[in-house]
From TrEMBL:
InterPro entries: HAD-like_hydrolase_sf, HAD-like_sf, HAD-SF_hydro_IA, HAD_sf. The keyword Hydrolase applies. This is HAD-IA family hydrolase. GO terms for molecular function: hydrolase activity. It comes from Streptomyces griseoincarnatus. PANTHER family: PHOSPHOGLYCOLATE PHOSPHATASE. The keyword Ribonucleoprotein does not apply. It holds the Pfam family Hydrolase. Gene3D superfamilies: HAD superfamily/HAD-like (3.40.50.1000). Coiled coil: none annotated. Keywords: Hydrolase.
Length: 241
C-alpha cells in the first residue's frame, strides 16, 4: 500500500501524467456534502418515514441501524426494484442532499486542483452515487460546473447500478470516448475503488483520516493521499504551471 507519507512524488506524477480523463467521486474528493447536514440523521429519517407507513419489514436489522442513507435505499430496492416506493424514497434522499449542498464544505485544494487540471487539458467528469441534480447545484455555486459539464454521472432510479457497480464509470468513459487506461478515478470509499477496478481504471484514493485510509487499504487500494495538495503540485509540475 502507498499512502501519502510513503508516496514517492514520481509515483504520483506517473499516475497523473497518464490521465487524460479524470473521474471524480463527489462526496469526499470534491466536498464534504453532509458537513452541515448529518447523513446519519437523513438515514434515520428515511427509516422513520418507512416505519410510519408500516413498511419497516422491508428493512433488515443492519439497514434499520445503518447510518448511510444509500444502504436504506438499496435495501428497499432489493425488495421492490423499480417501484413507485423506491422512486419516492430516492426523491426524498435527493431533497435531503439538495439541502445538504447549501452547507457542503469544499475539500481542501479541490477547487484549484479542478481548475488546474482543466487548464492543462484534462477532461473531467463526476461519477457518484449522489444525485446529479445535487452535483450540478454545488458545482454551480463554486463556479466549477464548466470544468465538468456535461459529464455528471450520478444516481438514477436504477439503484442496482450504484457503485461498486462500474455503471457510472463506464457511462463516463463511453460518453467521453476514453479508454480505461487513459483515465484516473479519485475516490474515498471502497465502492469507488471497486467500481474503478471493475472498469479497468487506475485509482487514486483520497482519505482525510486514518479510518478512511484503513478501509481503502483493506479494499485493495494501492495509492492513497491524505490531502489533495501533493496532487495539485504534481499536476502543476506536469503541466508546467
Amino acid at each position: 500500500m502507498t499512502t501519502e507519507t510513503e508516496t514517492e512524488p514520481n509515483d504520483l506524477r506517473n499516475l497523473i501524467e497518464g490521465a487524460r480523463v479524470v473521474l471524480w467521486d463527489f462526496d469526499g474528493p470534491v466536498c464534504r456534502l453532509f458537513a452541515g447536514h448529518s447523513a446519519e440523521r437523513v438515514a434515520r429519517d428515511l427509516v422513520d418515514w418507512l416505519e410510519g407507513r408500516g413498511l419497516h419489514g422491508l428493512l433488515d436489522e443492519p439497514a434499520r441501524e445503518s447510518l448511510d442513507p444509500h444502504v436504506v435505499l438499496r435495501a428497499v430496492d432489493r425488495r421492490h426494484p423499480g417501484s413507485d416506493l423506491v422512486a419516492e424514497l430516492e426523491e426524498r434522499l435527493t431533497q435531503e442532499e439538495l439541502k445538504a449542498a447549501a452547507s457542503a464544505r469544499p475539500t481542501p485544494y479541490a477547487d484549484p486542483l479542478v481548475r488546474t487540471w482543466t487548464a492543462v487539458g484534462a477532461r473531467l467528469a463526476i461519477t457518484t452515487n449522489n444525485s446529479p441534480r445535487v452535483v450540478k447545484e454545488y458545482l454551480t455555486s463554486r463556479g466549477l460546473l464548466p470544468c465538468f459539464a456535461p459529464h455528471l454521472y450520478g444516481r438514477t432510479q436504477e439503484l442496482r447500478y450504484l457503485k461498486p457497480h462500474p455503471h457510472c464509470v463506464q457511462r463516463a468513459l463511453n460518453a467521453m470516448g476514453a479508454a480505461p487506461s487513459t483515465a484516473l478515478m479519485i475516490g474515498d470509499t471502497p465502492s469507488d475503488f471497486l467500481a474503478a477496478r471493475a472498469a479497468g481504471v487506475p485509482f487514486l484514493g483520497y482519505a482525510r483520516n486514518e479510518r478512511k485510509t484503513k478501509v481503502l487499504e483493506e479494499a485493495g487500494a494501492e495509492m492513497i493521499v491524505g490531502s489533495l495538495e501533493p496532487v495539485l503540485k504534481a499536476v502543476r509540475e506536469a503541466g508546467q504551471l
